[in-house]
Here is the input.
Amino acid sequence: MPIGRIQKLDLKLGEHKLDIEQTRILLTKALRYLADGADYLNELDRAIGDGDHGTTIARGAKFVIRDLETAQPSNVNEVFVLVGKGMMKSMGGASGILYGVFFRAAQDAPAITQLDCRTLTELFTFGLRDLKLKTKAEVGDKTMVDALVPALSALDQAATDSLSAALNVAAAAADKGHEQPLVWYQNLGGRRPWVNGQSLPRIRARPP
Here is the structure.
């Protein structure tokens, strides 16, 4: 389960805009994709952690899917907020907090009833803002911010009205961001040392 392209989720996003129900389906399928990749994520985590990250993600994803199946959100923002609240409640630890902070930030954005490139960019901008405020992480710290910043920039600059095409552009930018070879280590918010696919001795401290 490498970081894939949007078509791997079989979302069939031909529309330029998604309504509230389509947004709920989009996030549900994305969460199922994460849950199905639990073994792969655990394998990655064993290189630097205790090997249970995928299990944790799957637990949160399945919890949120159940919530989304019965929810009756009145706008798109509430769909994202439901994801954040559910993951924060069910996952625990740093991961649950980070996902919760990112998705719950949608409550601060203007309420919308349709999701398109512009409104998704706006929701993610609020999420990234709150995530950086919470963690103080910046690009180069080897956190999810390394992927989110270029993804958001690519989404904002995507020369297309197609939501699926724009998401693919953002996914490619996220891939490139998380593969940056420079490795930093900084003890922020429960984060562990990160590696760039090489060995632990290559980790070096971020200069002050």
The CA atoms of residues 180 and 196 lie 8 Å apart. The chain has one domain: 6-205. Residues 6-205 form a domain with the Serine Threonine Protein Phosphatase 5, Tetratricopeptide repeat fold (CATH 1.25.40.340).
